[in-house]
Amino acid sequence: MQYDVIVIGSGPGGYVAAIRCAQLGLKTACIEKYSTFGGTCLNVGCIPSKALLDSSEHFYNASHTFKTHGISLDNLKVDFEQMIKRKSEVVAQTTGGISFLFKKNKITSYQGMGSFIDKNTIKITKTDGTEETISGKNVIIATGSKPSNLPFLPIDKKRIITSTEALTLKEVPKHLILIGGGVIGLELGSVYARLGAKVSVIEYMDSIIPTMDKSLGKELQKVLAKQGMEFYLGHKVTGASVKGTNVTVTFDTPKGEKKELKGDYCLVAVGRVAYTDKLDLENIGLTVEERGRKITVDEHLETSVKGVYAIGDVVRGAMLAHKAEDEGTFVAEIIAGQKPHINYNLIPGVVYTWPEVASVGYTEEQLKEKGVKFKLGVFPFKASGRARASMDTDGFVKVLADEATDEILGVHMIGPRAADMIAEAVVAMEYRASAEDISRMSHAHPTYTEAIREACLDATAKRAIHI
């Protein structure tokens, strides 16, 4: 079979690329090694974790805040089996939706492992061992990533687990030891903390979510500690062992002292690595970076081999589903001869704990490092009428604006529905709005988004009304 475009991988980057190619009139095929479409995000990442986060938040509120709201419940308990079942139903509906979209857009799908014979010929190795080859004028590599591990810490997928296994546990852990204080670990750790588990976080860096604005990490740690999570920051894990149903994790303190924690599960969440093995890239003369196994691309996301592109987690930048989606659309339009655009500085990052954390643009630390003079505006949610009404008063919105021009350079927030609210900041910054621009736009009252306006007012000559 001859195609205009062959996409290897059907995650957010791959399936969006395939759909956009088809919309542009290109004959498109998509290869997926698993039995369902959607990649890590839809199957064992974004979607199932958000389903469990939502379920666990309902339980946490029922047990901690309903009484204050005037709602009394007796014999409240977690039906964990049902919780996992609902999560699986959400995943099935979502992945099934991709199958529908492929049929709607007349995209040919293949199940199996895709690998290069040459730059235009792809071999598909199916689960039964049989092989098939297809040809394409262009190939998009969208194979995503998999959990990283620590070489000295073997993962048995039973007691020492990754994020994949954490989504299908048969029980709520009594004591979950979490290695890594990044986004994935904190989201899953907060799920089980809400359900009653003791959660201990061991992080090598001196703060959690270290890639985001430092103020967000400090506030999130404070809030999660109130929810019962404990933190060991600046600590170096040295090993882990399993005996029966018990896990012992050993680590060094910042002072070099030896310590250990005992629990029934250990979740290793130390990042992800690009999934580029088994593509036979050497057959087309491509090599990957030694660290992270990522593929080098140019400004058009084209590799050094003409007609072969790479997107998402296998290339530079943050490993985010929406970044992969943007790149999938970008490459499809490049192939079609258009001139699309991506502003990587304005791709937001989100942590789906509660309160949620969201960020876009430059952090305060980055601006100081660059020597950029800026104004800072902050508005706490405890001063928000809407937040008080919903009992969601933790957190704040922080706006950074250029000192001379007032252009918004970064927006960082931790609070209720921050994941949704950050879109206002992205739109504003795409149009190079000033803090004053946002402060003069009407925001419905009472809403959480008023906090963005107030933070902009605070950045504009300290004009905030409600603080």
Automatic annotation (TrEMBL):
<feature type="active site" description="Proton acceptor">
    <location>
        <position position="445"/>
    </location>
</feature>
<feature type="binding site">
    <location>
        <position position="203"/>
    </location>
    <ligand>
        <name>NAD(+)</name>
    </ligand>
</feature>
<keyword id="KW-1015">Disulfide bond</keyword>
<feature type="domain" description="FAD/NAD(P)-binding">
    <location>
        <begin position="3"/>
        <end position="328"/>
    </location>
</feature>
<dbReference type="InterPro" id="IPR004099">
    <property type="entry name" value="Pyr_nucl-diS_OxRdtase_dimer"/>
</dbReference>
<feature type="binding site">
    <location>
        <begin position="180"/>
        <end position="187"/>
    </location>
    <ligand>
        <name>NAD(+)</name>
    </ligand>
</feature>
<feature type="binding site">
    <location>
        <position position="114"/>
    </location>
    <ligand>
        <name>FAD</name>
    </ligand>
</feature>
<feature type="binding site">
    <location>
        <begin position="319"/>
        <end position="322"/>
    </location>
    <ligand>
        <name>FAD</name>
    </ligand>
</feature>
<dbReference type="InterPro" id="IPR006258">
    <property type="entry name" value="Lipoamide_DH"/>
</dbReference>
<feature type="binding site">
    <location>
        <begin position="143"/>
        <end position="145"/>
    </location>
    <ligand>
        <name>FAD</name>
    </ligand>
</feature>
<dbReference type="InterPro" id="IPR001100">
    <property type="entry name" value="Pyr_nuc-diS_OxRdtase"/>
</dbReference>
<dbReference type="GO" id="GO:0005737">
    <property type="term" value="C:cytoplasm"/>
</dbReference>
<keyword id="KW-0520">NAD</keyword>
<keyword id="KW-0285">Flavoprotein</keyword>
<feature type="binding site">
    <location>
        <position position="271"/>
    </location>
    <ligand>
        <name>NAD(+)</name>
    </ligand>
</feature>
<dbReference type="InterPro" id="IPR036188">
    <property type="entry name" value="FAD/NAD-bd_sf"/>
</dbReference>
<dbReference type="GO" id="GO:0006103">
    <property type="term" value="P:2-oxoglutarate metabolic process"/>
</dbReference>
<feature type="domain" description="Pyridine nucleotide-disulphide oxidoreductase dimerisation">
    <location>
        <begin position="347"/>
        <end position="455"/>
    </location>
</feature>
<keyword id="KW-0560">Oxidoreductase</keyword>
<dbReference type="Pfam" id="PF07992">
    <property type="entry name" value="Pyr_redox_2"/>
</dbReference>
<dbReference type="GO" id="GO:0004148">
    <property type="term" value="F:dihydrolipoyl dehydrogenase (NADH) activity"/>
</dbReference>
<dbReference type="InterPro" id="IPR016156">
    <property type="entry name" value="FAD/NAD-linked_Rdtase_dimer_sf"/>
</dbReference>
<dbReference type="GO" id="GO:0050660">
    <property type="term" value="F:flavin adenine dinucleotide binding"/>
</dbReference>
<dbReference type="InterPro" id="IPR012999">
    <property type="entry name" value="Pyr_OxRdtase_I_AS"/>
</dbReference>
<keyword id="KW-0274">FAD</keyword>
<feature type="binding site">
    <location>
        <position position="313"/>
    </location>
    <ligand>
        <name>FAD</name>
    </ligand>
</feature>
<comment type="similarity">
    <text>Belongs to the class-I pyridine nucleotide-disulfide oxidoreductase family.</text>
</comment>
<keyword id="KW-0676">Redox-active center</keyword>
<feature type="disulfide bond" description="Redox-active">
    <location>
        <begin position="41"/>
        <end position="46"/>
    </location>
</feature>
<feature type="binding site">
    <location>
        <position position="50"/>
    </location>
    <ligand>
        <name>FAD</name>
    </ligand>
</feature>
<protein>
    <recommendedName>
        <fullName>Dihydrolipoyl dehydrogenase</fullName>
        <ecNumber>1.8.1.4</ecNumber>
    </recommendedName>
</protein>
<dbReference type="InterPro" id="IPR050151">
    <property type="entry name" value="Class-I_Pyr_Nuc-Dis_Oxidored"/>
</dbReference>
<dbReference type="Pfam" id="PF02852">
    <property type="entry name" value="Pyr_redox_dim"/>
</dbReference>
<keyword id="KW-0547">Nucleotide-binding</keyword>
<dbReference type="InterPro" id="IPR023753">
    <property type="entry name" value="FAD/NAD-binding_dom"/>
</dbReference>
